[in-house]
Amino acid sequence: LKDITRRQFVASALSSAAISPLGLAKGAAASAGPVRVDRVVSNVASEPREDAAAPGTDQFSSWQDQGILNLANSPYAKLHNVPVRAVTIENGFWAARREVNVTQSIPTMHDLMESHGRMDNFRRLIGKSSAPEIGNAGCDSHLYKWTEAVAFTLQSGDRPELHKTAEDIIDLVVSVQKPNGYIGTYFVDDRATLSMRPDTQQTGHELYCLGHMLQGAIAYYRATGDRKWLNAGIRMVNDFVLPSYGPAPKLPIISGHPEVEMALVELYRITGDKRHLDLAGYILGGDDRIHVPRQVSIYLFSGTPFTERTQVEGHAVRAMYACCGATDYYLETGDATYWKTLNTLWNSMAGTKMYVTGGVGARAQGEAFGAAYDLPNASAYAETCAAIGNMMWNWRMLAATGDAKFTDVLERALYNGVNSGMSLSGTLYCYTNPLAFDPSAGITIRNPWYSTICCPPNFERTLASLPGYFYSTSSDGIYVHLYDNSILDWHLEDGTGLRVTQKTNMPWDGDVEITVTPAQRSEFTFYLRVPGWAGDKIRVAVNGKPVTGAMAGTYFPIHRHWSPNDVIQSRLGMTPQPLSANPHVAEDTGRVAVQRGPLVYCLEQLDQPNGVDLTDGSLAVSMKPGAEFTSEFKADFLGGIVVLHRDGTVAEVRSPQGSLNSKGGRDALYGPYEDQAELRYSRSVRLTYIPFYAWANREPSAMEVWTPVSKV
Ligand SMILES: [Zn+2]
């Protein structure tokens, strides 16, 4: 492993040199960005390390080369991340969202966190604010996630103002570190004696906050090379947690809200300190060391050994984050028991408990998964954080396998259940992402602020890190996962410099032109993702010559000697598809959802003809033979989207004589089935669908994803 990583490191340096003369200046731009040379120190010298040769050391992998996850030395990772900075997303769908993220969402969220006292919570501890402590026990994590969003943003190029703001916050966070290494603003003063008590650990979010701090610090390190925050995080782990908490005779740990597990494994991927990996394993092993009732263990997704779980259950974000941590643990250890459980849980989630939007967590009660196939639409909770957790988990499962089924779920969540979480303006957020909505209840679905402000900065860090999800490398080539206008400047694992350019109008049309430019003619495999939605008329050509065999829901391996400027052209099916749910999903019986490409669509009341009421159940989509969708790109509508049109019918109720029934029949709440069926009368209407992510960006309006069908 050591030799391989050394070779990769050298190759990386060589390939940067090789790329530059070609005018591919991305690597140079990145290293001229936020790096301050005087603060870049050795990645290894200052940290304690039990085994300097341990897998996980980043000794030969510099901070610029590390992706969202640094899997360069992970023995059970088939795919390896490319750095966020290696991919530039250009003009197109995601570039527009990312620009809103950086210019609107991230700055305004900073100001809201300031005005809601999130920074004062820290200042108070160093005598720089007299404001009272505010918010709940998880508050610090939201500020950490915001700073992580800035850190990922800086990996795509410097933003001096955001950079300075993040540095100020990091200075503030580090300044409250106690001599014993502890950082936190909630369990101080009167609450100090509660810190890390067994009951506190269940809901106190101390280790959850530590996990988010580590993730933020790691992202900032990978943006800037600056280890100040990272070192503070390592100190909290090494000086506060490790000496006192862990296997007996130390004090026990229950995860409470899983999150620290994945952070500790990522920390191990930097430090090489096996204690960090082992601590994650100890926490995931969570047995009866702190006894909690079974119902509590289900809700917390901890307090039971991870490998004894048989379904996703309980609090959805907790479950998804636990699965992320467990997959990270598997990627380092190869523990077969974990792998078996992870696949069981994935089948439980993707096979029985996930919305068509990729959202998860059906129940508001406990923000929790329901039973299998229990997927109500209007009351769907589907917290934005849970969809993000789903995406992050599938990213890790994909790394372990290279299996496109995980990418299909990742993409489903990203484009739909995650992307709905932020308004087109970038300043309003969904906490829940229901699949049907009735505005008459007076609920505002998008808000600028929530007292638990977990979702908005989570969304912000996800969009900021998005370039890192586009590609992976493997020992035999490169994988493309997501399609949008972009440039990859990176290298193959044998060190050969590689540029890959995508030109496309995804997600609005299915043509993608990919230009592959290795630094010199090279033999490798280009794994072209063919999404599960791409249909059966997929066309792939290399340099104009058709290549056969591409199948939806797979990575299509194209193995050849690649020369600079070789072109892959692919055409993925973009025909709108009516989808039905498994018959066990009672809520969706007799209904269809519509998907076009990666986007799930919905009906919003505002776009339907007068007299059509989405909330009274009288509207149906026509499924008669020959009924078709028409697609129309509207550049000036909802940020520029393809809308879909299709015929529908509205059930109108008449007595057999033709006037509204006054007694019995349809006016009655219930009646004989035969009578009801006979009294139904339908008129045709033209329905208009918009992408689900774009709903609730105008005045309050009814919405539905799953619409009843009529055969007329
Ligand atoms: Zn959330």
Short structural description:
With 712 residues, the chain is α+β, with helices and mostly antiparallel strands.
Tally of contiguous helical segments: 18
Query: Biggest β-sheet, characterized?
Result: 7 strands, antiparallel
Low-confidence runs of at least 5 consecutive residues: 1-60
Number of extended strands: 24
- The strand line-up of the biggest sheet is 2-8-9-10-15-12-13
This entry's quaternary arrangement is single chain
Bound molecules: zinc ion
Describe this structure in words.
With 712 residues, this protein is an alpha+beta fold. Helices cover 34% and strands 18% of the residues. The chain is built from 18 helices and 24 strands. Zinc ion binds next to helix 15 and helix 17.
List its traits.
alpha+beta; 712 residues; 34% helix; single chain; globular; 7-stranded antiparallel sheet; 6-stranded mixed beta barrel; binds zinc ion; 24 strands
Strand and helix layout:
Elements: H1 2-19, H2 26-31, E1 80-81, E2 87-89, H3 93-115, H4 120-125, H5 139-155, H6 160-175, H7 198-203, H8 206-224, H9 228-244, H10 260-271, H11 274-284, H12 294-300, H13 316-333, H14 336-353, H15 384-401, H16 404-418, E3 429-430, E4 436-437, E5 446-447, H17 455-465, E6 471-474, E7 477-480, E8 486-491, E9 497-504, E10 511-518, E11 522-530, E12 539-542, E13 545-547, E14 554-562, E15 566-571, E16 577-579, E17 591-596, E18 599-604, E19 619-622, E20 630-634, E21 641-653, H18 673-679, E22 680-691, E23 703-704, E24 707-710
Parallel strand pairs: 7-11, 19-24
Antiparallel strand pairs: 1-6, 2-8, 3-5, 4-23, 6-7, 8-9, 9-10, 10-15, 11-14, 12-13, 12-15, 16-17, 17-18, 17-24, 18-22, 18-23, 19-21, 20-21, 21-22
The structure holds zinc ion.
